[in-house]
Amino acid sequence: MLNNWINKKYLDEKNIVKIRKEYRKAKPYPHFALKDFFNKEKVEEVRKELLKESFEKIEKDLFSFKQTMDLVGSKNKIIQEFHQVISSLKFIDLIQKLTKESLKRKIDMQGHLFEDEDYLLFHDDVVEGRGVAYVVNFSKGFTKKDGGKLQLYDIKNPIKPIKEIIPEFNTLVAFTVSNKSLHAVEEVKNKKRLTIGGWIYGV
Amino acid sequence: MVFNTLYSDPAIMRRAKKAYDEDFPNNVMLEKFFQRAIFITLQNKLYNAKYSLKFDPYEYRYKITKSKEVDAFLKGEYFKQIVERIFGIKKFKVKYEVTKFEAGDFTLLHDEAKEAAGIDFIIDFSKEKGNRGHIKHLDEKQELVQINVNPNSLTFVNRNKEMKYIKYVSYKQKTPIVRVIGTILFKKQS
Predict the structure, then answer these.
(1) Residue B126 near residue B40, CB atoms below 8 Å
(2) Contacts of A121 in chain B (CB under 8 A)
(3) What would the DSSP string read from start to end of A158-175?
(4) Which pLDDT value is given to residue B115?
């Protein structure tokens, strides 16, 4: 199944070892952003179907954006298939190899839509059991000036982000959840930032 | 007289007290509070003052400054008169900050720092009206009141167990939001 969905270069053992080394060394904490991660046709199809899901606006002190219910409950066949891939033993095994984290076959998955002036302020994602946070980017045409970047901060000096990841189409971003994983989503400026994200739980 | 002469009229102040008492949570906004010339002078001073960043990623990001003029006003007779007329309180302490919120600034709710109960007040020296950077009061169940940015206003909001936060200021906010944000803490009447 993974062969149909994932870019072959990310299934190559030598490349996996290389990515894992980079992931572990990454600053301010272990993370990666893997471009062209999924099969292009498949990811286009998921994007098209994701936009048909129902997004609800949520707004609190910490955030403002739209999100779906957990996509495990989606009635859409393509979304169901995508959920099956991400929650499959083979995919979780791949993420374990890429991150060197011990993970189990338990995931959360929601769609997120950030529109103009939407944001997600500083937080670390720490909730008992969460091992690795993941985001699949489905937005198109984002540049540095459009906002919406995933910003990773050093907890000891959080004035400026150490790393900023532009939400490029078909990029898989993942990081290890810990009390050091301080991050935010920069306010979006006149664009739509569409992602599917969640957590893979740790053993 | 530094403030609008309207607010020295006992009938107007009775109406302000009634408006405060009838709302939940108790709150009232006194618009065009300072006399225009005084307001402009204070506004210019506060916009040109030097601010320092107050930042904790899990709690807040904004700028603060000190102002002799604001301090003198809050500890002086005029403010005392207003508080006495609306709340019937003669003895109180005031805790406050002169704040500046620009694009990217915010405060968050956080359990550890529940504020002491009192009457919150906001003196707004901003340059443009709007809802960006508004102050939201809420309890555990629901949002209760939202105080929008309104230049030259003085707002009072009663706060017991309620909490408040200041909404993230969007990139679309053109001018800094400058407000004195504080709390009136009661002293026991002797």
Answers:
(1) no
(2) 57, 106, 108, 168
(3) TTS-SEEE---TT-EEEE
(4) 75
Cα B63 to its chain centre, rounded Å, is 15
Position with higher pLDDT, B4 vs A136: A136
CA-based nearest distance A31→chain B, Å: 20
How many domains does one find in chain B? 1
ipTM > 0.85 (yes/no) = yes
Q: Which domains does chain A have, with CATH numbers?
A: 2-202 (2.60.120.620)
- Say how far apart CA B38 and CA B125 lie, in whole Å: 11
pTM: 0.94
Please tell me which residue of chain A has the smallest CA distance to B167: A61
Please tell me the distance in Å from A142's CA to the nearest CA on chain B. 17
Chain A CB contacts of B58 under 8 Å are: 122-123
Q: Residue A194: which residues within 8 A CB-CB, separation 6 or more?
A: A47, A50, A51, A111, A112, A113, A137, A138, A139
